[in-house]
Structures are given as C-alpha cells and as structure tokens.
C-alpha cells in the first residue's frame, strides 16, 4: 500500500503549490495528484505530457421540454435553488449553473415535462512528467463542487501506484474547508498544512486543523513567507505546540520564488532558501508519515 | 451599483482590492461572500452590531408515524436518507449529505411522518466599519456548500441604494456563480504569474458565459512583467488598475493593515471608470 501525503492550506495563495511542486522534485517514486481542480496549477510547473484523458460526468441537470410544459408554475415555486425562471417568451427554463440536480421539479411536474440531462463538468488526465506520473483534472468554469472529481483522481492515483509498486502519493489539495477539501484529506496518511503569518493565516489554520482532527488524520504545519511577520509566525508555532501538532518548518519570503514561477521553474530547484527549507520539512514529514 | 470582486484563486489580493474599493466608495456596503474564509473584517475592523443565525431546512422523521415506504429515500438525489423497514423500523438521516432541497418532504405520503426543521449551518455578522455597512456570511465548518448562504445574504441584506462591494469566494465554482449573479460589474483580480494567468483565463470564461461586464485589476504588478497585460490586450479586456508589488503592502497585510489612504484617490478613479463602463 502506498502512502498518501497531502498538502493543503486554509486558503488559496499561501504557497501550497510552491511547496508541493518542490516536494515533487525531491520525493522519488511517487504519483503526483493535483486535486485542486478548481484552479489547477501544478501542471504549469510539472509540464505534463498527457497520455490519457477522459471526460468527467457531473450530476444531471434539469431541462424543461417547452412543448409539453403547461406553465403551471409548480416547479418554479418548489425549486429551492431559484434555478427555474420564465424567460422573455414566457417559457419555463432552467438555469444550468444554478440547478443543484435535486430532481424535485421532475418529481413534481404534473405532465412529465422535465428531463434530467447528463452534463460533463470537467476532464481528468493521466500524464507523464519529468517528476513521475501525474493525475490531474480540470473542472469547467461554473461547474459544481469538485469533491467527486477529487475522489476520482485520488482513486486513479492509488490504482497506478498499486500496479506499478509506487511508494508515495503526493497530493496538491484544494484550498478552503468545503467539500473538495474533505475529499482531498480523506484517506491521507499525513497532511501538511501550509499557512502564512497573517491575521487570517492563524485563523484559517485553526479551521483546517479542526477539519483534519475530525477525520482523525495526522497533520503538521509549515509557515510560508514566515519573515513577513515574525511575531505571527511565533504565534502559529505556539499554537502548533499547544495543539500537539508537529511544526515542520518555515519558508522565507523570497522574490526568487515569484521569479522562478514566472520562468516556469520549480522553486526548489531555483532558490536556495526554498531548498534548505523544503529539505528540512520533508525529512520531518517523512518521519511522521 | 453592485460590484463583485473575484479571482480565480485565493491569495491574489481579492480582499485587499475589495476592501480598498469599499473604503474609496461613498455610501458603501461591503458584503463578504467568501463564507468559508471571510477575511474582510481583518482589514475593515467593523463593529458587529448583530449576529444572525443562518438556518436551512432539514427533514426530521417521526418514526411513530412513518410507514417506511422508502419514498423519501428514493426521492433524495444526494442519498442523505436511508430507510430500514421491519423489523428495525428506522430512518437514518445523514445531514452532511443533505442539500435541503425539500424533495423528501414533498413526496412523503404520510402526514406528520416527515417534517422539515430549521438547522443552523452558519451565521451573518452585521455591523459598521466607519461609514461602510458591513455584512459577512460565515459557514460552519464541515458544511458542504456556501451557495445558498450567499443567496440568502444577498436577498436579505443587499442595499440597492448603496455602492455594494461583494467580496467573492475564490475559484470558479457554484458559490462564485451565486455571488456574481446579477451584479453590474465584476472586477477580476489577478497576479502576473503563470498561475495567476491560468486562473484568470478560467474566470474570464465564466464571467463571459454569464454575460457580465468586467475588467481586470493586476495585483503585485511589476513594470517589467507584461504577462497579464498581453493577455488582456489579446482578449480585449480593460485593465482597470495596477497595484504595485510592494513588500510593504505584504507586511501590512500580514498585520491586518492596508494603506487605504494612500490609494483612496486611485480607487475612486477605478470606481468612476466602472460607472462609465456599466
Ligand atoms: S433539479 Fe432541483 S435544483 Fe434543478 S431545477 Fe429542478 S428543482 Fe431546481
Ligand atoms: S411543473 Fe412542469 S408543467 Fe409546470 S411549469 Fe414546470 S415544467 Fe411546466
Ligand atoms: S416517505 Fe414518509 S412515510 Fe415514507 S419512509 Fe419516508 S418518512 Fe416514512
Ligand atoms: S431535503 Fe433533499 S437532500 Fe435533504 S434529505 Fe430531503 S431529499 Fe435529501
């Protein structure tokens, strides 16, 4: 069984992908997963060559057959997602972006004028990269919560790892605390939470920590751009200590990181400051994994 | 005038730009729709006058009346209900899967067997930050989606007589759609990096799909970097403003301080330009 190491952050833009890509360049023998399907970024640094690609089906959406519809208004009144409206021609229409796929309109329609139609909500890919196999996905803009998609790409990665005897699965997770993150961390052996030393950073860290705890998953913390606010960094370290949460390391604020990304380089390979920090983080994380 | 501020991803400075716009506007209302991680309060430092619970309807089953016909479970598209008939006579409800759609209550044939009750899933904080009317939505941890909370927040609190600044959640999913739906203008905040550009493209696709007027604010802009400018030119999108890259802003941000006064004039101009574009 391969071991799953997941990198998440309470919030986007904390340098989560910087760290994950850096880990990808050091850890040998792993499958890389980009589970941040809402805003997938790993592909930019990993430069994947797509070997396999499939459409991902989302939940079916309601469609009203206007020839049959007798305009009784039932569906519009019942839909709690305000997805049904009357257009300028007086016809009943479903706003696909708002439809939550609950099927209540279909159940309630007295003349069976509502169909549930399959829609594709994104694509997922299996690719070769210079750093190993990568499974990643793209969700179409406006598509619903990517929890299912995350579960799917992780499952794919495990199948590949089992088949090829690969030891690790490295996951770039979704930001936030909603449904995609729950799918991201479920089944993980260890979660690295990346945070920034900002007023919101500590707050967000507490929320994800709680989430990890509620799933009984071990987690450790990394502070990125720690020198922007050393006092906050210390507060975060103290919080970690109090909570019995391993503190894995600090990454400095370095213009080199931005420049590396602009030049499509992995920060680990381009910036010494990152290299030192990541080596330390990784050795601690590996002990705990 | 309703202006939504969004970005493909978190951390691009969306809240920085949104709060600066709110500060620069006269007669502003700021709605923090990023209900998973509302951060606007750290910069606007509002005084909260009221905290209002946000509830959603969930089913409650009265097993004394229920006939275990399974109609509710069949109707539930999210598999939140499981009915176990004789001899167990139980209906199990998984509230983390429930979307509060009401289908189960609609189909239940037995009066009083399934009633809907209000369950708290989040809250609204309402207050004032100086002259700015402040409202934020906060989703409880573990709740799956903020979409309906945002819809409710807009319905209940949005004041059409004000310049409303909606701070959107990151990404391009349903909660973003809900936030920007019906606004007059969308400000897309982007960073000039390949990540930023990739996220920006997705957001542009979404906003165009929805037929909304929009423009770009570049955050952490640097003179020698024209990544976003080139893209905007090609796509014929207006760059409304470039907020310079500054370690000072980053440090201030980390402490919850933004240089509102320094940029007030610039953001007043941005607001004026938006007004012209609507
Ligand atoms: S399926 Fe549900 S959400 Fe979609 S339109 Fe019908 S009632 Fe509304
Ligand atoms: S319930 Fe059926 S018939 Fe009535 S308005 Fe809706 S689609 Fe038309
Ligand atoms: S539909 Fe009503 S009566 Fe039937 S199992 Fe559900 S709650 Fe019980
Ligand atoms: S309200 Fe909708 S989602 Fe919730 S249990 Fe009933 S049918 Fe299922």
Describe this structure in words.
The complex is a heterodimer of chains A (289) and B (278). With 289 residues, chain A is of the alpha/beta class. Chain A is 38% helix and 26% strand. In chain A, strands 3-8-9-2-10-1-11-12-13 form a nine-stranded mixed β-sheet, sandwiched between helices. Chain A has a two-stranded antiparallel ribbon with strand order 4-7. The mean pLDDT of chain B is 90. By secondary structure, chain B is α/β, with parallel strands linked by helices. In chain B, helix 7 links the parallel strand 9 and strand 10. At the A-B interface, helix 4, helix 7 and helix 9 of A face helix 4, helix 5, helix 6, helix 7 and helix 9 of B. Bound molecules: iron/sulfur cluster (SF4) (4 copies).
In N-to-C order, the SSE pattern of chain B is EHEHEHEEHEEHEHEHEHEHH
DSSP helix count of chain A? 11
Q: Bound compounds, please?
A: iron/sulfur cluster
How many strands in all of chain B? 11
Main attributes of the structure:
heterodimer; A: 289 residues; alpha/beta; nine-stranded mixed sheet; two-stranded antiparallel ribbon; elongated; B: 278 residues; two-stranded antiparallel sheet; 35% helix; binds iron/sulfur cluster
């Amino acid at each position: 069984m391969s071991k799953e190491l997941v990198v998440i952050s309470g919030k986007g833009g904390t340098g989560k992908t910087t760290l994950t890509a850096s880990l990808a360049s050091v850890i040998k023998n792993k499958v890389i997963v980009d589970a941040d399907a809402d805003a997938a970024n790993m592909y930019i640094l990993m430069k994947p060559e797509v070997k396999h690609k499939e459409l991902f089906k989302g939940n079916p959406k309601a469609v009203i057959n206007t020839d049959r519809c007798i305009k009784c208004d039932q569906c519009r009144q019942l839909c709690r997602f305000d997805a049904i409206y009357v257009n300028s021609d007086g016809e009943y229409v479903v706003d696909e972006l708002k439809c939550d796929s609950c099927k209540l309109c279909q159940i309630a329609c007295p003349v069976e004028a509502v169909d549930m139609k399959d829609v594709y909500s994104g694509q997922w890919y299996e690719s070769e990269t210079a750093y190993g196999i990568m499974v990643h996905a793209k969700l179409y803009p406006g598509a619903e919560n990517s929890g299912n998609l995350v579960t799917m790409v992780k499952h794919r990665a495990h199948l590949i790892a089992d088949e090829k005897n690969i030891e690790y699965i490295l996951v770039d997770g979704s930001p936030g605390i909603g449904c995609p993150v729950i799918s991201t961390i479920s089944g993980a052996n260890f979660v690295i939470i990346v945070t920034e030393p900002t007023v919101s950073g500590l707050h967000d860290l507490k929320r994800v920590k709680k989430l990890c705890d509620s799933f009984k998953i071990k987690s450790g913390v990394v502070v990125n751009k720690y020198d922007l606010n050393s006092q906050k960094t210390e507060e975060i370290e103290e919080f970690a200590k109090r909570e019995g949460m391993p503190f894995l390391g600090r990454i400095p604020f370095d213009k080199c990181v931005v420049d590396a990304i602009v030049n499509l380089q992995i920060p680990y390979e381009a910036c010494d400051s990152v290299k030192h920090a990541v080596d330390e983080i990784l050795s601690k994380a590996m002990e705990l994994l | 005038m309703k202006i939504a501020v969004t970005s493909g991803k978190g951390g691009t400075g969306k809240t920085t730009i949104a709060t600066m716009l709110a500060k620069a506007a006269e007669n502003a209302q700021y709605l923090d729709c990023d209900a998973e991680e509302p951060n606007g309060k750290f910069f606007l430092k509002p005084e909260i006058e009221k905290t209002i619970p946000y509830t959603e309807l969930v089913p409650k089953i009265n097993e004394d009346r229920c006939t275990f016909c399974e109609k509710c479970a069949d109707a539930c598209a999210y598999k939140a209900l499981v009915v176990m008939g004789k001899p167990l006579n139980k209906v199990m409800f998984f509230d983390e899967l429930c979307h509060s759609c009401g289908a189960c209550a609609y189909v239940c044939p037995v009066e009083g067997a399934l009633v809907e009750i209000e369950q708290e899933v989040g809250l609204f904080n309402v207050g004032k930050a100086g002259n700015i009317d402040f409202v934020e939505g906060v989703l409880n941890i573990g709740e799956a989606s903020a979409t309906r909370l945002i819809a409710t927040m807009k319905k209940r609190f949005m004041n059409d007589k004000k310049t409303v600044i909606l701070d959107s959640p990151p990404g391009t999913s349903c909660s973003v759609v809900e936030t920007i739906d019906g606004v007059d203008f969308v400000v897309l905040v982007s960073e000039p990096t390949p990540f930023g550009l990739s996220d920006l493209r997705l957001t542009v696709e979404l906003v165009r799909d929805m037929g909304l007027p929009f423009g770009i604010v570049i955050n952490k802009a640097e003179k020698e970097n024209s990544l976003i400018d080139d893209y905007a030119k090609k796509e014929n999108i207006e760059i409304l403003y470039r907020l310079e890259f500054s370690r000072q802003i980053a440090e201030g941000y980390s402490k919850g301080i933004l240089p509102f006064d320094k940029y007030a004039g610039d953001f007043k101009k941005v607001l004026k330009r938006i007004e012209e574009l609507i």
